[in-house]
Amino acid sequence: MRRNAVRLLLAMLVALAACLVAPGSPAQAAVPASPAVTYTNPIAEKRADPHIFKHTDGYYYFTATVPEYDRIVLRRATTIQGLSTAQEVTIWTKHASGVMGAHIWAPEIHFIDGKWYVYFAAGATNDVWAIRMYVLEGTGANPLTATWTEKGQIKTQWESFSLDATTFVVNGVRYLAWAQRDPSVSNNTDIYLAKMANPWTITGTPVMLSRPTYSWETVGYKVNEGPAVIQRGGKVFMSYSASATDSNYCLGLLSASASADLLNAANWSKSSTPVFTSNAATGQYGPGHNSFTVSEDGKSDILVYHDRNYKDITGDPLNDPNRRTRVQKLYWKADGTPDFGIPVPDGVTPQRFSSYNFADRFIRHWDYRARIEANVSPLADSQFRVVPGLTGSGTVSLESTNFPGHYLRHKNFEVWLEKNDGTAQYASDATFFRRAGLADSAGISYESYNYPGRYLRHYEYLLYVQTPSTTTDRADATFYAQ
């Protein structure tokens, strides 16, 4: 009887121990709701003002400005990466004379009430700068083979320079946002918003949401243009592009509550600093005119934009054809606002790695020491490209996003971010085997290449390579890619 009581007590203690977590540690993290996605940039050369729309038929539809400014093109593919090699079809060509005869810019494709609509801007043959907004309507399941008709110009409060129309729905109400010049102001363009009576007609009085006033909005030209909308957590976020279309081009952000009156400008707040800018370290310049789409699994938001891979431009930037379409994952801060990060380097896009047992902490570098931390700022300190291992096939190395050429490597079993010095020792120290997570096979663990059995793990929030021998050790050596 006493023996059974002891067994029962031991069983209870084991069960209790299994439920307990080490002091100061949170419970096991759930598999992330938004797992990592990777793409290879650029998606398309010589394609500016990109718009990618994921339809319910399983296809992504892609359109963009072509450098000849003379036509509207479409591609489709079942994956975002597939758009790179998808057949491109011209669905409409500029008029030989009159309106819609020049400067065919910034097309967007939308599916509304069973039909396709393409919004675009165009000048006239007798005045290429008489830019106005126009709409095409397409009938047919596949817009690449649909029958397209011209629905005409979107009329606004003024007959003035206007472009970059986009449409979105909040709480069942469809809106149009666009950029337009106020004839009474010396700005180039402001951002406006109005309700829509149908896909080619606005109704009511438009409201101005943003005017270029900050220094970063007025370099070269006083410009707010290219609005794009994403919604999350009961908030409406509208990104827009500012300044000249050279390396000064950048993104700003407006935000409002989805339950507010969106036609009251006072209900919108504006970022005082740009949210996405050129980055010399990654070799990306003039990122802007973005759109948003979602990953193939529907779990990640994807930022779509154009930029150039060089800074200096000869002559008018509008005559430089080399803006490229690029994509990268859009992350979200703890306060529910989007974190655009930086335009990542060309090639494979980076990932973030959250701790298995500290769900809000990510691997990051800080003063070149690797650690895990919550609320990482800047975001790029916690982004790493998983590239082929420096020692050869079957291995991987983790390259910093904002310090290209710098990798996570161990030194005296501490993990640091250091520049590749080209030595065999460095290559070995910066190379790992990617394994199934030691605490959860849905996660990832990284085993040292030159010290088999030692894994990348955190201890008191700093990263080391150590041999995991306990349940806690294995948890500390497990991460989720996001």
TrEMBL record:
It comes from the Bacteria. Residues 352-480 form the Alpha-L-arabinofuranosidase B arabinose-binding domain. The active site is at residues 49, 225. One of its GO terms (biological process) is L-arabinose metabolic process. Keywords: Glycosidase, Hydrolase, Signal. Belongs to the glycosyl hydrolase 43 family. The record marks 164 as: Important for catalytic activity, responsible for pKa modulation of the active site Glu and correct orientation of both the proton donor and substrate. This is Alpha-L-arabinofuranosidase B arabinose-binding domain-containing protein. SUPFAM superfamilies: AbfB domain, Arabinanase/levansucrase/invertase. GO terms for molecular function: alpha-L-arabinofuranosidase activity. PROSITE patterns: PROKAR_LIPOPROTEIN (PS51257). Residues 1-29 form the signal peptide.
